[in-house]
Amino acid sequence: MKFSTKKIAEKGQGTWIVTIEGKEWEDAVKKGKSKAAANIEIPGFRKGKAPKEKVAQYLTPVKYLNAAVQSIMDKAWNFARDQKSDVEPFNSPVPTPVKISEKECELHFVFDLKPEIQIGTYKGLKDKELVKEELKVSKEELDKAIDQYRERFVMEKLKEKDGKIAKGDSVSFDFEGFIDGKAFKGGKGLDFKLIIGSGQMIPGFEDAMVGKGLGKSSINVVFPKDYTEELKDKKAEFKLEIKEIKERILPAKDDELVKDLNLPGITTFKELESSLKTQILDQKSVQSKNIFVNKVIDLIRLNSKIEIPKSAINKEIENLYKEFEAKVQSQKITLKDYKKQTGLTDNDIRNELFEDAKKRIESYLITDKVRNTEKFEVSEEELKQKYENLAKTFGVEIDFIKKSLLPEAQIKEEIIKEKIVDFLYTNNG
């Protein structure tokens, strides 16, 4: 195989060119002919059972050369990747056969070039937003964590027809929102299921539902200041049709609950509380650091020069769109039904994702620049400790994690990401 590169700076694109010729390509063509021949369907014969002379009549160069390309594609990609070219891809290259004949094959792997970036100061930043808060576990947070375990044994009882909604109830209802008498996009839902007090809706929505009964009613709420530009601070009326109200009965908070849970190393309710406090504190620490570092990155972004190709942003929008679709489907609803209920189109959703996509790419480029400048490395001891922690968390052997779940390269990458966060957290604010 031969390797070369091409860079189109004005388009922000690069190409890895792999040429396969000689015996290597001859063998691929032979393999392509065999594979294509085995898949040819000839009237009167079962697949793969026709005489060779009949197969030869149907075996066109287009069919077997295409099969030859497919048979060697992965090998060509791995070869190109191993060349360690200074023309580096920013995203997954798209393979395109450019020249194909009996004698040679030329494959082009086309990709967006890594955007140019001039990073601003990333150490010693000060700002009123950069506050390192003292972390504590509140009673409400602990109760919520315990309730998640209690949910495993929850029982639901349908309320009578004259029953009213109370905090903790499960409610099925339709709703539609109006601002100044006009329905707005994204403000409609059918057969929506909600646990009152879960915080799933905007502030005030669930509280306003308490005391309502079956049938039609309405509530008034105000969208929060940090909501979308079109809706923030707006007063809205939601018309409801409540279809079903269920009382949810949770088990008591006692040693019997712990016994039913059968958690390793935990036999009493006090031990459960202690374990959960530690977990919550660890989670809050990680979350607090990430929020702080995201603010640091926002400040770095203000003083950095980053030019991102539109094609790269569009690809990231597609990634976010898939994530959004998966999130919608996790709510037991198809994206098609979601768009029908909310009145949103594909373009509406993608337009809303544009800034998020741009910001995600910029954040990656900034942290990548910090990483390469500071030259973070992972020691064997750090790697060993990480695997030990994971083995304890999942309750499996370290070798199983290494071979079946998380290979060393992936774990090292995770440790470096943690080091970048710790570095930006420690050196700013």
UniProtKB/TrEMBL annotation:
**GO-annotated biological processes:** cell division; protein folding; protein transport
Q: Which UniProt keywords apply?
A: Cell cycle, Cell division, Chaperone, Coiled coil, Cytoplasm, Isomerase, Rotamase
**Residue ranges of domain PPIase FKBP-type in the record:** 168-225
Listed GO CC annotations = cytoplasm
Entry keyword Isomerase? yes
The protein's location, in the record's own words, is:
Cytoplasm
Q: Which ranges form a coiled coil?
A: 125-152, 314-341
Query: Entry's InterPro entries?
Result: PPIase_dom_sf (IPR046357), PPIase_FKBP_dom (IPR001179), Trig_fac (IPR005215), Trigger_fac_C (IPR008880), Trigger_fac_C_sf (IPR037041), Trigger_fac_ribosome-bd_bac (IPR008881), Trigger_fac_ribosome-bd_sf (IPR036611), Trigger_fact/SurA_dom_sf (IPR027304)
* Gene Ontology MF, one: peptidyl-prolyl cis-trans isomerase activity
**What reactions does this protein catalyze?**
[protein]-peptidylproline (omega=180) = [protein]-peptidylproline (omega=0)
EC numbers on record: 5.2.1.8
Checking Gene3D superfamilies in the record gives:
3.10.50.40, Trigger factor ribosome-binding domain (3.30.70.1050), Trigger factor, C-terminal domain (1.10.3120.10)
Please give the family membership noted in the entry: Belongs to the FKBP-type PPIase family. Tig subfamily.
Describe the task this protein carries out.
Involved in protein export. Acts as a chaperone by maintaining the newly synthesized protein in an open conformation. Functions as a peptidyl-prolyl cis-trans isomerase.
Q: What is this protein called?
A: Trigger factor
